[in-house]
Records
---
Amino acid sequence: MRVLVAGAGGMLGQDVVAAAEANGDEVLALARGDLDVTDERAVAAALSDEHVDAVINCAAWTDVDGAEDDPDGADAVNALGADHIANAAAHVGARLVHVSTDYVFDGARSADEPAYVESDIPAPHSVYGASKLAGEEAVTAAGGSHAIVRSSWLFGVGGRNFVATMLALGEERDEVTVVDDQVGCPTATAHLAPALLVLAHDAEAQGIFHVAGGGQCSWHDLAVETFRQAGIACRVLPCTTADMPRPAPRPPFSALVSERDDAPLLPPWQEGLTTYLAQRGVHA
């Protein structure tokens, strides 16, 4: 299969390219400098000229706080960009796998309630979440063969992420303070990327899929487990979201599970963390 990866220079995109190559697919890796998804004509031309069988859209505005100050910028990439890719893919008959987020939910559930499934009604509270939901809606409206994949709390060796930040802080400090009232599903991009390829090859798998690391935890829990696995003696102090306010509201509870039999299942988030640390050469 000939696969175009949009946003190939990003943290997830790099792992998707690697997974596609390992899968034996012919890969066209287009980073932001190669393909600006906000340019409708450029997107249409790329998909038309390259004769691809599938597109995996990893291009995204991921600066959650920055989106609050620049909603037009976030919409240009996450909503209009998704629209451009979806329409172009539908026009040439290419399969589309589009990556979305847990931030499409308001997170109003408590940690003892069920995790969000695909049929739950989105209600984003942030500009970022709203822009990603608009992207989902654009993909659906385009009418082509598609899978929309919601994932969460991504970490990988190809970019900045929470785990990398904790590792750096743990080497510098004896203790760190991390919020313990936000719960989600940490997801290793090394595990998510092959799952996206599975959906790219499965034309029967249509609609929305929740694909995230198995289980759930708080950011505090993730920091504790990071230091435990890495053998770093750094104390993790709990705090609340109110203690560390940010410009964009975060969903307090955004754990994802799938209600679909055809959704790829990822290993527990702890295994994703183990894989990530091994990739970085970090050992206890």
---
Amino acid sequence: MHYNLALIGFGNVGQALAQIFRDKHANLAQQFGADFMIVAVCDLLKGSVCDPNGLDPATLLDTLTATGKLETIVAPHHGWDALRTIADSGADVVVELSYTDLKTGEPALTHLRAALNAGKHVVTTNKGPIALHYAELKKIAETKGVEIGAEGTVMSGTPSLRLGLELLAAAGITRLQGIINGTTNYILTQMEAGMTYADALKEAQAKGYAEADPTGDVEGYDAAGKAVILANLLMGAALTMNDVDRVGITGLTPQDISAAAANGERWKLIGKVEKANGQVAASVRPTRLSITHPLASVGGATNALTFTTDLLGDVTLIGPGAGRLETGYAVLGDLLAIHRRFGK
């Protein structure tokens, strides 16, 4: 089955997806019977290019490395904005990878609405529209008979949403709790090793884990967005960002870290979603865990999520929660899920 893809955004994740197609295209076609072809790329800073006959992933990557722009690639169309790319590129699937805005969900929300209303499948790693407007987007998708893939919005390529939606749905999920922000987990791990918060943050920024403005991570907004996504997708809730009881890690001191260690405990920023008496509540806050707790041993930028279920008890998933190639793999996983459902 052949699929034309339009990529809206060509930063780290888009480039990683192109790398995967460059290196694995033949294997994907042979193993899964899925032929994914990029026909358009539109990026606010790098320009846009469209060729209905397909764009070579290697050429996209090599050109970007050499020039930083897409306009020099030989193709029938250049200079289209995102909405025209969605409308006129001939894509079957729109892969939305623009920057995240957890206040409005824009511009990704407009892109996803346009794609879905045009009867195109969408895949996104963008937390904004999924945390803020998933119910609306899902209704459009169902009306149009298309799919929304959002695996990369929570734990990058580690399949937390698919595990909950498909494999654990019948087990009766009553609680989700975990480390769903790698930046803060890295900072707390370094603080336990003796660093100050300021030095640990500076190191996280140097390694690319934290943004120049780290507020979204360290104040818990990123984790809160993921908690909302988990609650709404896996528990059928209708939470908003304002419903999350949110506290970040900026108030933790070296003395707090030392006091926990002396008591056989470790600080983690824990996102929690819990269903009780038909109500779903969500929180993100620094929590002292016994060092014997499954989540306490998860260090660095790694993520982990424990599903508490009626039939299986606790099931803990541990894996990368960020990363260029890892998030690109999340997109691939969603594309293959679309193929399994519609490619018959």
